[in-house]
Design brief:
The protein has 84 residues and is mainly α. The protein contains three helices and no strands.
Length: 84
């Protein structure tokens, strides 16, 4: 079941800690994107691309206040980070 924006529902917390999670994840996304660009320029191909996609899902979910999805995506991102 998906709750309407702004309503409370499973995994949805408004205002999601005042947007703090979304802000932190936005910064992390920018840093990771820069690192992916550096790796591509060096001819490296690794888990960073996968992490970038997952971090984007995490960031968008946190911005919507869906911390359940954000936490799950972040856990998958951590799995990829462990292989670095």
């Amino acid at each position: 079941m998906i709750a309407e924006p702004g309503s409370a529902g499973p995994g949805l917390f408004r205002p999601a800690y005042g947007g703090a999670w979304a802000d932190v994840l936005e910064q992390a996304d920018r840093v990771l994107l820069a690192r992916v660009d550096e790796a591509a320029a060096a001819g490296e191909d690794g888990p960073l691309q996968n992490m970038l996609a997952l971090l984007d899902v995490t960031r968008r979910a946190a911005a919507k206040g869906n911390l359940g999805v954000a936490a799950t995506s972040l856990a998958y991102c951590e799995t990829f980070a462990q292989s670095l």
